[in-house]
Amino acid sequence: MKIGYARVSTFDQSEDAQVNALTAYGCERVYREKASGKSAKRAELSRLIDTLRPGDIVVVQRLDRLGRSLSDLIELLDGFKNQEVDFVSLHESIDTTTATGELVFHMIGAIAQFERRLISERTKVGLQAARARGRKGGRKAKLTSSDIKKAQAMLLDPAMTKAEVAKHFDVSRPTLNKALSAYVQQ
After folding, report:
1. Each residue of 10-54: pLDDT tens digit?
2. Active site residues
3. What's the fold here for domain 2-112?
4. Radius of gyration of the chain (CA)
5. 94 CB neighbour count, 10 Å cutoff
């Protein structure tokens, strides 16, 4: 079964042109959505994915209607492949039911993998440079060493519970426990 997906970013826009192209291509069902491509939570796309069966073909008018980033597209297309679902993008002439379309899909996948590796390498180099300058990465600690000393003193009182101490410092009990154990190890 050919299943179409049409998406526009705002409620001011109309997806009618996409729906017409998908219907003309032979889509028996078209999921319509008004949501940003950046949004990971797209209800109609989730419904489409939930209804897919092996042998189905997902059709979009343009690749950017399915997702904004190359990595998101690759993730979706890999999911389709794992479900034995083919994919067609009308504008870009990508059709994984053909050998050429499959080749284009693999080339896009290779480029995405290359992009991920480059990002990873740049991140590692940036972290090393920051460490060399004495910077430490990660989230700022919720409790200062002074707070931890106060928490330890409060916990010496047998009537005081860890939950009460955590509430006093506006942190969760696991955060308090982690801070206390890290402070002891120093």
Report:
1. 787 888 899 999 999 999 999 998 887 666 678 899 999 999 999
2. 9
3. Rossmann fold (3.40.50)
4. 26
5. 20
Chain centre to alpha carbon of residue 50: 18
For 39-68, the three-class secondary structure string (H helix, E strand, C coil) is CCCCHHHHHHHHHCCCCCEEEECCHHHHCC
Q: How many residues does the chain have?
A: 186
What single-letter DSSP state applies at residue 88?
Answer: E
Distance CA(90)–CA(95), nearest Å, equals: 8
C-beta atoms surrounding 70 within 10 Å = 16
d(CA 148, CA 144): 6
Extents of the domains making up the chain: 2-112, 145-185
Q: Beta 86-89 vs 57-60: how paired, if at all?
A: parallel
Kindly list the distances between the CA atom of residue 185 and the CA atoms of 72, 151, 181, 182, in Å, as whole numbers in the listed order.
41, 16, 6, 5
Given a contact cutoff of 8 angstroms between Cβ atoms, the answer to whether 18 and 28 are in contact is no
* Host H or E run for residue 145: helix 145-155
Mean pLDDT, range 78-107, rounded to an integer: 87
Instruction: Give, in order, the Cα–Cα distances in Å from 155 to each of 1, 113, 176, 181.
Output: 65, 51, 11, 14
